[in-house]
Amino acid sequence: MDLNTFLVGNTDRYTNASELELGTLVITSGRLRIRDPFIPDPNDQDGCLLQVPPGRYRTWVTLAEIDDMITKDRSTREAYLSIALADRTPTALDYADTLIPRPRPSFGALTGTDSATIAAFDDATVEVPQDALVDAIRADTPVPFGYANLPVGENNIITSHTGYGDGAFNVLLTHDSAGPIAIHIDFGILNTEEDDE
After folding, report:
1. Residue 90, preceding bond cis, omega within 30 degrees?
2. Is pLDDT at 5 greater than 60 in this prediction?
3. C or N: which end of the chain has fewer Cβ atoms within 10 Å?
4. Per the confidence metrics, is the pTM higher than 0.70?
5. What is the residue range of 66's domain?
């Protein structure tokens, strides 16, 4: 993967890309869960679990205007959901496997959805309040329609639509020699190994 052509953090280079702020994600346990929030009977193996320092983290979506796969019309889609862990300039882009607790699964940092929605939240959140989450996604405040930033106890749940919808998504990591800088869920509408223009 080429950091120089990675769209996240570089939307100012392109006329067809932008960022949408989703607010602050609160992690108190040091365990970040990324998964479909509407799984009927979730378990510890669902989605992707990453170890991060407890903190409050900026969360945003990188949007890209692309040709629709089916209609071929131009449409704006979510390319990445990102969570900033540190305010530094990255020097490398990789899969987020190093943040997975041991024993690490053979498939690495991967998540997915059957509801066209992905959620990021503290793994200590015992239960995702699905009815309240649906209402939050349908509302247009505090974040736009189709997204959510829902308080749950001392933490919160942030959700995003997932580009083209259902699927499996790689979880990426930008970093430098000092450590992780940001986590990025790649919704697969762009090739991170090629130029994103």
Report:
1. no
2. yes
3. C
4. yes
5. 3-186
Burial of 193 (0-12, 13-18, 19+ CB in 10 A): exposed
Summarised one tens digit per residue, pLDDT across range 24-67 is 999 999 999 999 999 988 888 899 999 999 999 999 999 999 88
- As a whole number of angstroms, the distance between CA 150 and CA 67 comes to 32
Residue 152 resides in a domain: yes
192: in domain: no
Q: Which residues contact 102 (CB under 8 A, 6 or more apart)?
A: none
3-state secondary structure of 31: strand
Do residues 62 and 160 lie in contact, with contact meaning Cβ atoms separated by under 8 Å? no
For the chain, how many structural domains are there in total? 1
- Give the helix/strand (H/E) hosting 130: helix 130-138
Confirm whether 191 is domain-assigned. no
Phi, psi at 112, each rounded to 5°:
-170, 175
